[in-house]
Amino acid sequence: MSELRRPRTGRIIGGVCAALADRFGWDVTLVRVLAVVSLFLPGPQLIFYVIAWIVIPAEPATAAVPAPTSAAHSG
Q1: Hey, which of 19, 37, 53, 64 would disulfide with 14, CB 3.0 to 4.6 Å?
Q2: 4 — pLDDT class (breaks 50, 70, 90)
Q3: For 44, how many CA atoms within 13 A lie in the half-sphere containing its CB?
Q4: How many domains are contained in the chain?
């Protein structure tokens, strides 16, 4: 199992479903379908989603590595 972080790529709305799927090794499509289906049931699912969106940190941005420059040697 990996760390619980919202991915920078593959997000649909906030990346909460993708984060849960990555963390527990589930299929992200299944998690998304279950999340949408759960909205038709009574309960505070939408509130929990928004709270998870706020609480679960996003993946850190990868630092841009500058391309190596070749020094021109005159000679």
Answers
A1: 53
A2: very high
A3: 5
A4: 1
Percent of residues, the chain, with pLDDT higher than 70:
81
DSSP-derived secondary structure for 26-75: --HHHHHHHHHHHTTSSSSHHHHHHHHHHHSPBPPPPPPPPPP-PPPPP-
Query: What is the token pair recorded at 18?
Result: 């993708």
> Is residue 66 in some structural domain?
no
pLDDT tens-digit series, residues 54-65: 999 998 887 555
Looking at residue 47, its pLDDT comes to 95
Burial letters 3-24, b for 16+ CB under 10 A, else e = eebbeeeeeeebbbbbbbbbee
Domain that holds residue 20: 1-60
Is residue 39 within 8 Å of 13, Cβ to Cβ?
no
**Is residue 72 in a domain?**
no
